Amino acid sequence: MLLQILTLLGALGMFLFGMNMMSSGLQKASGNRLRKLLSSITSNRFRGVLTGFGITALIQSSSATTVMVVGFVNAGLLTLIQAVGVIMGANIGTTMTAWIITLLGFKADISIIAVPLMALGFILSMMKSEKRKNIGEFIIGFALLFLGLSFMKSSVPDLESSPEVLSFIRGWTNYGFGSVLLFLLIGTVLTLILQSSSATVALTMVMLTMGWMPFEYSAAMILGENIGTTITANIAATVGNTSAKRAALAHTVFNVFGVIWALTFFRPFVGFIGNIIELMGLPNPTTIGLDVTSEENQTALLYGLSMLHTVFNLITTLILVWFCPQIVKLVSAIIKMPKSTEEQEVFSLKYINVGPISTAELSIKQALKEVVHFGRISQKGLDYALRAVNSKTGNEFDIYRNKLVKYEEISDRMELEIANYLHKIPTADISASTSEKIRTLYKIIGELESLGDSGETIGNIIVRRNLHNKRFNEEELKSITNMFDKVNLAYDVMIDNLVSVADGKSVDLTSAHNVENQINELRNNLRDEEMYKMESKGDFLTSVYYLDLISELERMGDYIINVSQALV
User: Fold this and answer.
1) If you write DSSP's letter for every residue of 9-47 in order, what string do you get?
2) Domain map of the chain by residue range?
3) CATH for 344-567 (1.20.58.220, 3.30.365.10, 3.20.20.140, 3.20.20.150)
4) What is the pLDDT of residues 360-410, one digit of tens each?
5) Residue 115: CB partners within 8 Å, gap ≥ 6?
């Protein structure tokens, strides 16, 4: 008996591992398509539902889709009302897994060809083509999933040789509607433990076809699974921003509402599913009881459970899709936006607080959005540097110099946190092109951090100038301001290029080179003019600080052009 239980746990682990591998292979193979699909979502809630359904049906994981949606809301790539529609579609899409298991895992013994499939998958995974490697990973995962399901079926205790198991389960079925709630709780807890609604559904199907429980109680377990599956997104959202938490809560609201109406009309609902199966020419699963001796009865039970799972999510979606704005208002009322000052908001990460999303390929888009945010913060630091240079009094200068020191600290922190985020993306789960993008992002955040250092350096130059009681004249201030304007223009081009890459567009390297050439030419002209004036001017120290300032601004132009070049 103990060996059977351990075998069952091992088979369940094989099923879960296969499911994750299959999903991972599909996600890597279709990462770019998923990015484009998600970016094409409009405020049309029905299109969002179709998108959620399509993605989940493709990657076979509603948890992956939901966590992805939470990450995209956190990253500002989806609005909350768009996310609600996608989550509804994901709940329908996850029912496809139950149908695949029903039609292939029980009706046909896929485990017979599982080992040959793994051989094929291994051969593909050894090829140089990234696409073939991903397809190979999918095939191996597919084989392991059904091999695990086969082991689960064979390792569940036989009720004829272990009648005590049946009497134990039957003891839970004597409480009327209380038994329904009990099995609902079991389904919820199982999904919480396994972190996979598909695994819970598969386990429920095995127990149902082995005669462990009548159809109505397995139906209650399926309802419980819909509540348990919400925990994954809520865990992902705990470190996200307010919008991410609201998206995860919307997922919970959807499933809890669905379970409430299904429990309210439980007997009629289960009877309705039974009638559908009867219309298909099979026995009514609600009248079969524990009689699983015939193949026809087993088929009716499996079809009934898959049909119930699908119809439940379809009805819930058809009801709630009209109330997306109300759901958004509800979750917004429950999770309120924290009060924070503008300064605190500026200095925080906006897009990657939730950590890498389940799809490694899609994590890059979040990182790119954060790098754009980093660039804009850096550009704001340039404005404070100009104000520090033009300060008329010591107190005014101290205000802006403190700002520059703070921005330098922020750039250090942002570089570290973005690098940590990129480091968390597992290299085994990304394509070669995405791996190259990660290396590019490492280089870009290094250049942006150097821009923060330059801002503080400019502040230090002015400190030394003030210590020697030197001031720039009007002509020098005009030239410095002109140099700042050129660097600011370079920032604009750089940020436009970062945004273009984040949106999947091409980089305008010509404009970046043009403004870089303008900065270099202006630096050369100003330096030559100052060198010519130094002898007649008789103020060597002021000229030194002036030239240091011009050189540092030209250096900032170098860092900025490096970013655009890295993007190419």
Assistant:
1) HHHHHHHHHHHHHHHHHHHHHTHHHHHHHHHT--S-HHH
2) 2-334, 344-567
3) 1.20.58.220
4) 566 777 788 889 889 988 998 899 999 999 888 888 888 888 888 888 888
5) 143, 147
